[in-house]
Here is the input.
Amino acid sequence: MKKVTAIIKPFKLDDVREALSAAGITGMTAIEVKGFGRQKGHTELYRGAEYVVDFLPKVMVELVLADDQVEDCINAITTAARTGKIGDGKIFVSEVLRVVRIRTGEEDEAAI
Here is the structure.
């Protein structure tokens, strides 16, 4: 099993959800986060004072999948989230050692 974590632009969340659903992948968690990388930040004006916004709003999407679904997931996210501009995001894939469904006690792939 693998955990796929994607950091994307907020306005791309619906596109990513639809692309994952079309790929047969259901069940994900989306969290509003802030961060910066190469995109840096930008300057804003508030009541006549200029200030720098270092952290930009992003959405972190997390999914736990069977190993054979990972490539389809990555392809769906990259296709749906890509704008071609800086700040499109990143995808991280990591191992998941164990999953337990609290309600039934099912474990591992049966619990996904």
